[in-house]
Amino acid sequence: MTGTLDGKVAIVTGGAKGIGFSIATDLADRGAALVIADLHGADAAAAALREAGHRAVGIELDVASEADTATLPEVALRAFGAIDILVNNAGLYSSLTPRPFEEIDAAEWRRVMEVNTLGIFLCCRAVLPALKARGGGRIVNISSGVAFKGNPNMAHYVASKGAVVSLTRALASELGQYQILVNSVAPGFTLSDGVLENPVLAERVRDPSVRTRVLRRDMTPGDVVGAVAFLAGPDAGFITGQTIVVDGGAYFH
Questions:
Q1: CA atoms of 179 and 78, how far apart (whole Å)
Q2: Distance, CA of 53 to CA of 82 (rounded, Å)
Q3: Going by DSSP bridges, is the β-strand pair 56-60/85-88 parallel, antiparallel, or unpaired?
Q4: For residue range 36-71, what is the model confidence (pLDDT) as tens digits?
């Protein structure tokens, strides 16, 4: 594993904890320099990586802010001189309360869409010049298995993650001419830090998720990192526009 991403520079949004921090740590273990972007805790997460011997910087930002995302390439280029990989992991999920769609207010719907879809658009747009200058790169968008299963009581989240899959395909078609490969990873219900901090969500979703899997155990952030690293690494050089579902066999995609 070590060295497969030597010389590469990766940005991970929502990288301060949970799935994002696990992805950032794994990419760093494989040799990449990391830019961790998050609303809170980015500097502390980057410091933890540096203490482990990795190259990392943090930037605190809101991915739904055009002004904030414009600073992403500035930070990466100033620290490491290039950008090779963008992992769009930031998203709203664990703070949401499951409920029928008619009980979701418009403000919450808009915020979920802003973070989960507009955020990816803004981050991709911000780093595109640097990826072109590098002669290519990888974008890995974190979607969700709900995009294919249509889970109830989370209509805004499900809709946003379906949009991520479609956006992945559109960007792959558009950016292939620049040797920029765009793919997606769709995890199942994961016991991330945020989920564990929301007992209402965890209690409603955990047991049904485990029961519907071929591999009947809890999914943890560490189960996601291999697929992300594969799509970001040298073995996926002819793969683009695809979504890998990582959910223990709950959905065959």
A1: 23
A2: 20
A3: unpaired
A4: 999 999 999 999 999 999 999 999 999 999 999 999
| 122 vs 233: CA distance, rounded Å | 23
- Please say whether the dihedral angle defined by the alpha carbons of residues 32, 25, 227 and 59, taken in this order, is positive or negative: negative
| 11 closest CA partner among 65, 61, 67, 64 | 61
Beta bridge partners of 81: none
Q: Average pLDDT in the 152-173 region?
A: 97
Decide if pLDDT at 206 tops 80: no
Taking only the tens place, the pLDDT of each residue in 76-112 is: 999 999 999 999 999 998 888 889 999 999 999 999 9
Q: Take residue 237 and report the two structure tokens written for it.
A: 């050089």
Question: What whole-number distance in Å separates Cα of residue 173 and Cα of residue 182?
Answer: 9
Q: 28 with 54: CB under 8 angstroms?
A: yes
- Residues labelled catalytic: 157
Backbone angles phi, psi at 13, to 5 degrees: -85, 150
Give the mean pLDDT of the chain.
94
Q: Answer yes or no: are the C-beta atoms of 45 and 248 closer than 8 Å.
A: no
Kindly compute the dihedral angle of the four CA atoms of residues 41, 43, 47, 50, in this order, to the nearest 10 degrees.
120
3-class state of residue 151 by DSSP: coil
Widest CA span in the chain = 50
Structure tokens at 226: 């291999």
**How many CB atoms are closer than 10 A to CB 18?**
24
| Contact criterion met (CB below 8 Å) for 109 and 57 | no
